[in-house]
Amino acid sequence: MRTFLALCLLTATALAQPKAADKPAPPAKTSVKWFGHAAFEIDLPSGKTILIDPWITNPSNPTGKDDVKSVKADLILVTHGHFDHVGDAADIAKRTHAKLVATFDLGNALVGVMGFPKDQFGFDTGGNVGGTIEVLGGEAKITFVPAIHSSAVGPDPTKASQGGSPGGFVIAIKGGPTIYHTGDTDLFGDMALIGSHWKVDLMLACIGDHFTMGPDRAAEAVRLVKAKQVVPMHFATFPVLTGTPDAFGKALKKSAPRAKLTVMEVGKSITL
């Protein structure tokens, strides 16, 4: 009888032990995909997707015509009104029903001039520099930050409409990384305030020169922001964008040697 009870106890104990298959899965991570130029896709752990400056069909992207038909989006972020940043935003929005995140003036111009669906932009996703909005059910917070550039909206640059102030975005993902997209900008001293207010895990930095800061000034921007990792963007799309990742890497070793430089390939992703 005692032997029988002992066997029953051992069996019950064994059944109570968690199986290997019952171990909790590792937490999902955030991934970032580059479509070339300044266009990025951020895939959140929940499966939600944020697009930034979605010129998916830019000349650097050989699969752009196919990508623009299949890319997912829950939010579309646009830093300023120039064609190479507005890109395919309206077409993607009509297909995906993604909401527009932009400064208030820029958002209204994209609706009025560029055909972005009117009911997909409003006070919930429109803001201005210094403001923060909570999006996707609290999964992320997006702060509008300054950029030193210009902004105009319209298919014909000689007849463009006012496009509000240019800017960048700081995207803080709940329980995940903080990502800073500079938009088009020069170096400016208040980038240090971004570094003091957030711990930036990934900085997406323009380096092309001519229309934005070049490699040397971009490296100094990384120092001010104190970014842990930086991805160069907005280079080589046009011949006048002469800044290169090599030159940026050399400047980074002098200005911000602790920052990790990641040079992405068009169409590829990194995981944070």
3D structure, described in words:
There is one protein chain. The protein has eight helices and 16 strands. The chain has 272 residues and is of the alpha/beta class. The N and C termini lie far apart (58 Å). It has helices at residues 2-16, 64-70, 83-86, 89-96, 104-114, 191-197, 215-225, 245-255; strands at 31-34, 40-43, 49-52, 75-77, 99-103, 126-127, 132-135, 140-146, 152-153, 161-162, 167-173, 178-181, 202-206, 229-233, 260-261, 269-271. The chain is globular, with a radius of gyration of 22 Å. Mean pLDDT is 93; it is low at 3-16. Strands 6-5-4-3-2-1-16 form a seven-stranded mixed beta sheet. A seven-stranded mixed beta sheet has the order 7-8-11-12-13-14-15, with helices on one face. The longest helix is centred in the N-terminal third of the chain and has 15 residues, at 2-16. 27% of the residues lie in helices and 23% in strands.
Largest sheet: 7 strands, mixed
Number of helices: 8
- Structural class call reads alpha/beta
Low-confidence runs: 3-16
How big is the Rg?
22 Å
Mean pLDDT: 93
Beta-strand content bin = 15-25%
The best one-word shape is: globular
The number of distinct β-strands equals 16
Cross-sheet strand order for the largest sheet: 6-5-4-3-2-1-16
Q: Helix-strand pattern, N to C?
A: HEEEHEHHEHEEEEEEEHEHEHEE
Kindly, what is the distance between the CA atoms of the first and last residues, rounded to a whole number of angstroms?
Answer: 58 Å
Task: Estimate the helix proportion, in percent.
Answer: 25-40%
